[in-house]
Amino acid sequence: MVRELKFKMPIALMTSSLLMLPLDGIASEAIESEIDLSFRYRVELVSQDGIAEDAEASTLRTRATIKTKWRPKLDSVIEFDDVTEIGMDDFNSGQGTSPTRGQFPVVADPEGTEVNQAYIRYSGDSAKFALGRQRILIGNQRFVGGVGWRQNEQTYDSFTVNSGAGEFKYSYAYVYNVNRIFGESVPAGDHQHNTHLVNVDYKIGKGKFSGYYFAIDNEDAVGLSNNTFGIRYQGKAGDFGYIFEYASQSDAGDNPNDYKANYYHIDGNYNTGNFSVGAGIEVLGGDQTGGQGFTTSLATLHKFQGWADVFLGTPTAGIEDFYIKGGFKLAGADIKLFYHDFSTDEGGVDLGSEFDLVVTKKFNKHWAGLFKLADFSSDNASYASRDKMWFMLTYQL
User: Fold this and answer.
1) Judging by DSSP bridges, how do beta strands 112-123 and 318-330 pair with one another?
2) Which residues pair with 174 in a beta bridge?
3) What is the 3-state secondary structure (H, E, C) of 126-161?
4) Which residue, among 179, 231, 173, 168, has the nearest Cα to 202 in the 3D structure?
5) Whose CA is closest to 114, among 183, 42, 192, 190?
6) What span, in angstroms and rounded, lies between the C-alpha atoms of 158 and 9?
7) Environment class of residue 225 by beta-carbon count within 10 Å: exposed (0-12), middle (13-18) or buried (19+)?
8) Alginate export domain location, by residue (predicted)?
9) Radius of gyration of the chain from Cα atoms?
10) Bridging pattern class, strands 275-285 and 55-71
11) Which of 307, 276, 278, 313 has its CA nearest to residue 295?
12) Is 396 helix (H, G, I), strand (E, B) or coil?
């Protein structure tokens, strides 16, 4: 199969700028390059109430990353991803990427070959500056992340600054385009932005205090534009770890909704190394009068509120997720279990519950395997019950 490899204008401009660098200084120094190659094969099976057919997806992601050091403080990265269906293709890859397969549940891994990253970076004595297509992973990725679970990663055409001194770290990003998981062949795959992301971390003893401000102006999906202020503290006392987080959000840009909503997260975890147990509550507030709930459109959403991906969008009444979790090691494998109970923030309406399980094992420095399942059950007509199962094998050269 031959695919068209697409370059958007910001990438071309960045490449041209790189080629115009003075070569007299570079020629006198050795240029170092390395290539990383990895493969990730995955089978995903989905059974969902209300959809007659079950989804069966078998996909392989091939990734090649070229890293070049031009000068001691100047480097670049260009990374290519290819997602190919192998065998089973009875699934809807979402957002119009598979128009003849709408009878199946969604498995959001469309085929395609794209530039995943392409940026140039200058590393100064106290700060790093990067321009181009790149990953932006802030904190635990609850608000800004790469959606790394999906075969096609979310990356950002952006200018970034990362700085730090001692216990203090600061990051800033100006984002002008978000390359979403659906690829560039459909409108939903690219969202133009005029977005500013600011995050500050400060270590205090065994804990870390974070403050953030995200001014998201999505010019292609204006309902996702908002301003978010938040603070987070993650600490540890012996074998006990805890998280406290609060954020406030309101509409911004051309968002047609006039809303305000809050976010709360409290988590406690006891971990001895081979065994862990914990519980927490996460609330994405609602504003039914304003017409929108707390929105995290740039997040790695699969990490939160259950792996069945039922709540990728927040209901206008908000959502409250009470969860318990546990984990242990067995025969060299890591096993983790979660139970979630979901209800609306406003009104306390029951939305359903979910059980999640994941088993991961690293066989050697090259090979790793994963088995994962999610079982979501609901009597609420708005949220269909569903089961999902994954088998995954990765190889890193």
Assistant:
1) unpaired
2) 159, 196
3) CEEEEEEEECCCCCCCCCECCCCCCCCCCEEEEEEE
4) 168
5) 183
6) 13
7) buried
8) 35-250
9) 22
10) unpaired
11) 313
12) strand
Give long-range contacts, CB 8 A cutoff, 24+ apart: 136-140.
136/160, 136/173, 136/175, 136/197, 138/171, 138/197, 138/199, 138/212, 139/199, 139/210, 139/212, 139/232, 140/303
* 382 vs 340: CA distance, rounded Å: 18
Amino acid at 69: K
**Cβ partners under 8 Å of residue 283, min gap 6:** 262, 263, 264, 265, 318, 319, 320, 321, 345
What are the pLDDT tens digits along the chain (397 aa)? 334 444 444 444 444 444 444 545 445 568 999 999 999 999 999 999 999 999 999 999 999 999 999 999 999 999 999 999 999 999 999 999 999 999 999 999 999 999 999 999 999 999 999 999 999 999 999 999 999 999 999 999 999 999 999 999 999 999 999 999 999 999 999 999 999 999 999 999 999 999 999 999 999 999 999 999 999 999 999 999 999 999 999 999 999 999 999 999 999 999 998 999 999 999 999 999 999 999 999 999 999 999 999 999 999 999 999 999 999 999 999 999 999 999 999 999 999 999 999 999 999 999 999 999 999 999 999 999 999 999 999 999 9
* Largest CA-CA distance found in the chain, in angstroms, rounded: 70
* Location of structure tokens 């990356």: 155
Asked whether 117 and 134 are in contact (CB, 8 A), the reply is: yes
Any idea which residue has 């699969």 for tokens? 302
CATH classification number, 9-396, choose in 3.90.79.10, 2.40.160.10, 2.60.40.10, 3.40.50.720: 2.40.160.10
Contact 107, 88 (CB under 8 A): no
